[in-house]
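Board notes (copied after class):
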Amino acid sequence: MSDFSAEMDLAQRAARRAGEAILSFWREAQSFEYKADDKGLVTRADRSAEHAILELLQRDSPHPVVSEESAPRKRPDALCWVVDPLDGTSNFARRLPFFSTTLALVEGAQIHIAVTYDPLRDLLYRARRGGGAFLGDERLVVSGIRDGRAGILFLNHGYGASDRSRFARLTRLLSGVYDIRKLGSTALELCHIAAGSAEAFLCSGDELWDFAAGLLLVSEAGGRVSDWHGRPWDQDTSRLFVSNGRVHEDILDRLRGTDLLSPEEEV
């Protein structure tokens, strides 16, 4: 069985190359366009970072690539790369310094390797399935906090009206106990949970390339990943719940009995 060492090396090189491309645009005033599907913004930095990643992966890896910007969106069942060249485009376009590039090697519902790179701070987070999560040479461990009053909770949403409505109701439901944050980069938020700087993350409507690497980082750092019912994550759900494991049941208990769990609910 492969330990994916070559793929890990390749993912780190690709992430750093994308980071260099992103930073080459950072000092400029950013123009942006709205995506054709009305799902956010796109800048020249997104396209440049994606080109840098695709050029390397397509040259040095046999596995297909699923990327946010231009690569085929349909994910194959076999091993494939799942890539977000610039997670946090809206932040980048407005010069808010919270964005990243993120890659994962995925096979069905299994994530084998993960890399997320914060180019502004030159921080590279990595994880291998069964091999732990790391920031540089430092092994990552989730926080030990159990009391929601000391807990930081990231909330996120997709672009649809129903996702935004769920976000608003989650905020009302949980802000009385947890401190709520939204950094604008799902990938970085999950890195902070893996590093023990925050306790939980809930989203509705994020795409796989936003969170694939982060799921493995948190899991390998000792955290827990589920859907909003507490069931193991599967590749089809976008209602994602990630935590240090210690606040997981408390938040699940708060969700139970609400219509937020209804699969038929649309707003």
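Comment from the instructor: Residues 5-26 form the longest helix (22 residues). The domain at 148-261 is CATH 3.40.190.80 (D-Maltodextrin-Binding Protein; domain 2).
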